[in-house]
Amino acid sequence: MAKKDRSGAGRPAPSRKADRSGAGRPAPSRTARRRARPVEYSILYTATLCLFAYGAVMVYSASSAESLLSGSGDASFYLKRYVLFGLVGLVVLHAASRHGLAVIRSFTPVLLVVAFALTVAVMLPGLGVRVNGATRWLGAGPFQFQPSELLKVAIVLYTVQVLAARPKATKTLGGLVKPLLLVVGAACLLLMKQPDMGTAMVICFTVGALLVTAGTPVRLLGSIFAALAMAALVLAIVEPYRRERLTAFLDPFSDAGDTGFQAVQALTALGSGGLFGVGLGESVQKIFYLPEAHTDMILAIIGEELGLIGVLGAAVLYGMIAYAGLRAAKLAGDLYSKLLAAGITSLILCQATLNFFAVMGMAPLTGVPLPFLSYGATNLIVLMGAMGLLLNVAAEGGQAARRTPAKPQLEAIEGGRRRREPAARQRRRA
């Protein structure tokens, strides 16, 4: 009789328990990573793409007639440039959403210095480009850059860094003045010199929102707000053109042919649109009536061609950014990320709100573009980069929230572990 083979040859290998550490497992695919992205990330990304597509349609509609009749002769001139700059912005957005948070945290002081230097260079003779009475651009021809757009984002990043590094400094005025308010005040003075009061207002409102987020006492915030309101009123009264804008805001129809012309044309466009609008491409106000129809006043063209429904559609998209951005701030794992998400969300919302109010006659005209909708190369690219940082925070915060068990789950795990312990060990623990 043949002996049995005790070497184990030919036998099936014994089954081994799965390695719980995950070592040796293949890395998750790109599709799996996309599915793992939190809902806040998806909402922010979807709203940004929808606003970009919405802006492309409305920039073409608002600019085609004037560009064809008195401009370059190409009806799609501004559309081509808007799409080109938007694609550059999307590249910046994707780069910032993956690797931008660590990089921008290290280079914020450098970015702030560069932004200040470029803003000062605008006011030097022979360097700044003057358009419509304001000197805000650098460059020549079609390649122009607006440093104030970079400066406002740099101020927000610097404010976030200061508040995250010195959280106790927000409790006193002295703690806020030296590292923060002096820098913000210097930036606003440079912007007022251009003049660009609209961007200065956006910076002040955004910094105020960050101070609220950081827990600054209400009494201190009230004092700062009162001082800023008094300074803004004095500046508006002292400068003749600002005084005219303030008068036009209070009663635009009193001088509808001069100082109140743009406000009256914007209100006429909104009023003629009604609920559903006159139809896409059918605007009358955009043809030599409403100045800056494809930039600062694009909301008026939306209201005329698409009606109240079109305006509400834009408002809903900004509302999606507000909801998802603040949720990302809430779920962020550290103070810096929380403040960064709150700051970028506030920057976009403050700029959009100021534009809405100005176009609808509820605030003086300030020349602030509508984020992701208005034509403007620098504004579009810079805000796309800022949105990439917000997406970075949303992705990291959502993944951390999923990895951390909820409180009921923690209690259930702890209860099960104690039930498995011997009674003597439980008595020693007690």
Q: Please, could you describe this protein's structure?
A:
The structure is a single chain. This protein is mostly helical and 430 residues long. The protein has 14 helices and three strands. The chain has helices spanning 30-36, 39-70, 77-122, 147-165, 173-193, 197-214, 218-238, 240-250, 261-273, 298-331, 335-359, 377-403, 407-420, 423-429; strands at 128-131, 134-140, 143-145. A three-stranded antiparallel sheet has the order 1-2-3. α2 crosses α3 (77-122), α10 packs antiparallel against α11 (335-359) and α10 (298-331) packs parallel to α12. The longest helix has 46 residues, at 77-122. It is globular, with a radius of gyration of 28 Å. 40% of the residues are buried.
Brief descriptors of the model:
mainly alpha, 69% helix, 3 strands, three-stranded antiparallel β-sheet
Helix content: 55-70%
Number of strands: 3
Overall spatial form? globular
Assembly state (oligomeric): single chain
> pLDDT under 50 segments (min length 5)?
1-10, 14-25
Output the helix-strand order: HHHEEEHHHHHHHHHHH
Structural class: mainly alpha
**How would you sum up the major sheet?**
3 strands, antiparallel
What percentage of the residues does DSSP assign to strands (E)? Answer: under 5%
Write the layout of secondary structure elements.
Blueprint: H1 30-36, H2 39-70, H3 77-122, E1 128-131, E2 134-140, E3 143-145, H4 147-165, H5 173-193, H6 197-214, H7 218-238, H8 240-250, H9 261-273, H10 298-331, H11 335-359, H12 377-403, H13 407-420, H14 423-429
Antiparallel strand pairs: 1-2, 2-3
